[in-house]
Amino acid sequence: MRHPDPPASAAAVTVELDRASVEIDGRTIIAPTTLTLTERRIGIIGANGSGKSTFARLLNGLIVPSSGTVRVGGLDTAKEAARVRRMVGFVFQNPDNQIVFPIVAEDMAFGLKNSGLPKAEIPARVAAELSRLGIGHLAERASHSLSGGEKQLAALAAVLVMRPRLVVFDEPTTLLDLRNRNRIRAVIDALAESALVVTHDLDLVQSFERVLVIEDGRIAADDAPAAAIAWYRERAA
Ligand SMILES: Nc1ncnc2c1ncn2[C@@H]1O[C@H](COP(=O)(O)OP(=O)(O)OP(=O)(O)O)[C@@H](O)[C@H]1O
């Protein structure tokens, strides 16, 4: 499989849920939900335990629906898991869950080797991605020696180097100081890829195209950011 160069601003990936639900141990975590997402920047907000991470995990097949279907870019996540994983990158809240290899550049090269990219092209791809995130100087660093913010950026680089068409972020700024938070914000704003971001950082989603508020496993509000955030603030007051 070859990786085409992404266009400067790739077309949005369509996400379609058709009566998709998630039940765990007999408890409904996501109630049957029918929804189509076509925007390039989507925020997911809501209270602790409302189902945001579970919803996000549905999109790259980390969780498959208990009933109904989830399609991403036309692919059924339950039936075409491998292709869905290649299309949808997932950035975990805790980068320790994601970084596998001891050296930053090695960690990034691993997925590329498996994807069939010619070996000679790998170093340049890794370097370009690190430079895009402004962390070229971390290439040869031991992952365990990085600060929390550096690690978060390194984990993001390892996802982006695979050139997913949609990047799902699960609380990407929670561990970060203001400077690194701003950096992640700038990175998300500049992504050519589509992004769906689960967050408690309401400022982060203010510039997005669409924001969903999840409440008790249901989409309780679905609107432009200002209206969705206002709805959520009111609800939490
Ligand atoms: N594997 C699991 N087994 C049992 N319960 C689970 C599992 N995963 C999630 N849950 C439950 O589902 C509910 C929703 O969890 P989820 O992590 O999706 O919420 P969230 O909105 O992302 O929360 P937070 O903002 O606190 O991260 C919670 O009550 C959680 O305990």
TrEMBL record:
- Keywords for this entry? ATP-binding, Nucleotide-binding, Transport
Domain ABC transporter stretches: 15-236
UniProt lists the family membership as follows: Belongs to the ABC transporter superfamily.
An annotated GO cellular component: ATP-binding cassette (ABC) transporter complex
PANTHER family reported in the protein's UniProt record:
ENERGY-COUPLING FACTOR TRANSPORTER ATP-BINDING PROTEIN ECFA1, HEAVY METAL TRANSPORTER
In Swiss-Prot or TrEMBL terms, this protein is called: ABC transporter ATP-binding protein
MF (Gene Ontology): ATP binding; ATP hydrolysis activity; ATPase-coupled transmembrane transporter activity
Q: Name one Pfam family in it.
A: ABC_tran
From the record, what ranges are coiled-coil?
A: none
- Answer yes or no on keyword DNA-binding: no
